[in-house]
Amino acid sequence: MNRISNAVGGKLVASSSSRVAAVFDPATGTQTGILPLSTAAEVAAVIENAAAAAEEWGRTPVLKRVRPMFEFKRLLDANVDAIAAAISAEHGKTHADALGEVARGIEVVDFACGMPQLLKGEFSRNVGPDVDSWSHRQPLGVVAGITPFNFPAMVPLWMYPVAIAAGNCFVLKPSERDPSAVMLIWELFRQAGFPDGVLNVVHGDKEAVDAILDHPKIKAVSFVGSTPIAEYVYARGTAKGKRVQALGGAKNHAVIMPDADMDKAVDALMGAAYGSAGERCMAISVAVPIGETTADRLIEALAPRVRALKVGPAGDPAAEMGPVVTKMHQEKVLGYIDRGVEEGAELVVDGRGLTLQGYENGYFVGGTLFDRVTPNMSIYREEIFGPVLSVVRANSYDEAIGLINDHEFGNGTAIFTRDGDAARAFADRIEIGMVGINVPLPVPVAFHSFGGWKRSLFGDHSIYGPEGVRFYTRLKTITARWPTGIRSGAEFNFPSLK
Ligand code: NAD
């Protein structure tokens, strides 16, 4: 059984914690790994190690800091298959889907390679007689990332390449459920030639997270996970004087206008609702057709596609989606389907009771489709994070916008239409951080930034892209006058332009 180590100061270090978590292959339900849950003292030692490396790393010229980043990118490119396999083995997503995740993570490494340009400051000559002023951004020191199970490679890569190229040392606390891809990537990072202690990985649960949030040498925390934990991390981290960006859960709606190309909209919904078994923070979990006719056409086109979804283990090239991540999560998703029926939604396709030959103990849930879901139902209000799509019928465009704006989450949304004016007004009025127009998963590219609104993001900064650079650095503005000004004697009035 694979026993997973921490990575501290450039070395693998076994945790001596007596508490452990089991890691499973979700396709078979067999345990494949043991993950020690690090103690607060172990976390503190990791942070001290990072702090010891931080001063020199922060002073290293940015051009030198990005040289190993180019090598890291090359190594990632050369190992995409192995990384994807490590993801699938513990997460369950298909190999093709895992490759997509790795590719989106590598894009952030590309972006971080451009840090010399991104850190260029601003300079104003002669802001007063013989006085110059300039602003530049400096690293914070040691920063941390706490990441969820659903993108075990990509979400950490949203964080540390940017933080590290900007001059910080990083402590990563990955998800307990699928830690192996992180360790494989850490090994590539080490081979790329970064100094020891620049990237450290410490495994654990709440004890480790609290130790990070409370430690005075951690200056900023990036969190991605569910909303209750995001809110907790934000409150505790900021109370300790840290900068915190905490990205939370989602309930992403897709509006289908009567003029939408229905075939394309259905294709888009299939991938966005059921890809990765619905375990994406940008998954579409609510479809909102406008008008009864559009709704009937949508259900008629969707239902056979959902029934025909190919569910299977990651190794099956024909599989369109894999299992969900754990037995507990499978039970939670199945429980939501039961609740939807009890609450009066119309169950058009029932994903309960799916078993696959040879994988009887896997955590599979079949594609599920509900019609006539209403806003008071828990399957509408809460994030299910499984392959369950709810159709909420709206009478008008305005009603759909109101529905989305009233929802507590504000991560992503999409509209399917052929009408430019409807799309433009939608993008303008909708209270959601990321909007797709005929694009179902509007995940911003690495040189833009990713972030939701409302209870999908706590804090001021979105993640990666230019917002990431701002988050991991602080602004310093220097105003300088050289000898002659001082030689002319002391000045007692508040400085102003003469
Ligand atoms: P989670 O909140 O259970 O766990 C996230 C991290 O928090 C993990 O590292 C975990 O160890 C830690 N954690 C869990 N319980 C904790 C506690 N009580 N105290 C302190 N730390 C704790 O999330 P998950 O199930 O791993 O991931 C799925 C969730 O993440 C979904 O809600 C999904 O929408 C969200 N997510 C959001 C985004 C985004 O960008 N907004 C991206 C990916 C996932």
TrEMBL record:
E.C. designation(s): 1.2.1.27
Top-rank taxon, per record: Bacteria
Coiled coil: none
The UniProt record lists the keyword NAD: yes
Ranges of residues in domain Aldehyde dehydrogenase: 15-478
Entry keyword set: NAD, Oxidoreductase
UniProt xrefs under InterPro entries: Ald_DH/histidinol_DH, Ald_DH_C, Ald_DH_CS_CYS, Ald_DH_N, Aldehyde_DH_dom, MeMal-semiAld_DH
Gene Ontology terms for molecular function: methylmalonate-semialdehyde dehydrogenase (acylating, NAD) activity
GO annotation terms (biological process): L-valine catabolic process; thymine catabolic process
Protein name: methylmalonate-semialdehyde dehydrogenase (CoA acylating)
Species the sequence originates in: Siculibacillus lacustris
